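Exam prep: given the inputs below (a chain plus adenosine monophosphate), describe the expected output before reading on.
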Amino acid sequence: MNLMIVGGGGREHALLEQLRKNPRVDRIYALPGNGGMAAHAECVPIRATDIDGIVAFASEHAIDFAVIGPDDPLIAGVCDRLRAANIRCFGPSKAAAAIEGSKSFAKNLMRKYGIPTADYAVFDSAADAYAYLAAANYPVVIKADGPALGKGVVIANTREEALLAVRAMMEEGAFGSSGSRVVVEEYLTGVEASVLALTDGTTLIPLISALDHKRALDGDLGLNTGGMGALAPNPYYTTELARACMELIYLPTMRAMNAEGKPFSGCLFFGLMLTQHGPKVIEYNCRFGDPETQAVLPLLETDLLESMLAVEDGRLAEVPVRFRAGSACCVVLASEGYPGAYQTGFEISLGDATRAKNVFVYHAGTKQEQGRLVTSGGRVLGITAVGANARGAQRAAYAAAGQIHFMHAVCRRDIGERAILWAERGE
Ligand code: AMP
Ligand code: GLY
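Solution:
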């Protein structure tokens, strides 16, 4: 089989490492891939947002199965286009990808079908939003309706902050058309959990849970990033919670999408807040999470490609999905300055990190340049270690990360720490 992976981040590298284990695979192309993926895939300089380019490449290179990593091409309908060209793929239709592409669609779906989420109101006019904010309780959360490169969420502690956020989104076009509609949400407190689930619209199989670390600095301070590390499973996400989420959130979401005539096929990501009043959905994503995937997939025991093919064929129920015991911790090495401005082009020395057993070095912002591996992005590498327990995995991940060097490398020193301490105290 010829595979194509669309995307070039740590998530896609982690997908590649699982997919290439399948003995039926002949060739793998990555569009555009990265400096690490190049070891096992042919990297092709086509951007993940170039839908025409992706479809043309797949048709010309006899691609048997395409796996789409990022949200943008899914929201733009790349899977519809591929299927129309008789190319099988893993990912939702454009209609179903609206569950991530439009926050108002997702919120209205949850309200209509009784799926627990934060209270909210939707506004198409800035004047109406201002009037609402004059009488709101603070903090509130302001969200641009459409995709905004992970920057469309503002937690406003005061009315002034809320008004500024609405003005930027609705009147100053900070996120283009994505901000012409905003959702104003109740602020929830609790701990967060990420759950990725495979679904073909009939069967839904949650993968092991994960804990993301979105803020740039230790102690959850600093700016929001694409994710600075992850721990799987998430210590806060108990078996009881998993059972409750399946009944109250996951299956109802799958059925709601069917009832709306938008059956979801692919990986459905549930961003959860575990509140005092039970688990609530903060957001849906229509794809694998990053960096969660880099902590979840190394624990997968069964064959990912067979599961993905089964999703596309609507026979997910027939294929077992199993995880091994233990934990995985992913520490992201980033370029100093990220998520703001940073420099690239520094040579990377991986040392012995890649030789350690149970350590996986996933590339994100790297590229090969004249035989050298150099930095090319904000998040450069995700270093994942698997261990018998969360503490063991965390220590091994930091030990491996410590062997890797490039100029101006930074990482959080506390990935998993608070959750691990919480779990240790509870025992
Ligand atoms: P994202 O949508 O990935 O940019 O994430 C925004 C982040 O904002 C989430 O991971 C939460 O930490 C936070 N967040 C979003 N919605 C809420 C809410 N209703 N209450 C509290 N925090 C929220
Ligand atoms: N880690 C959250 C996301 O992938 O959007």
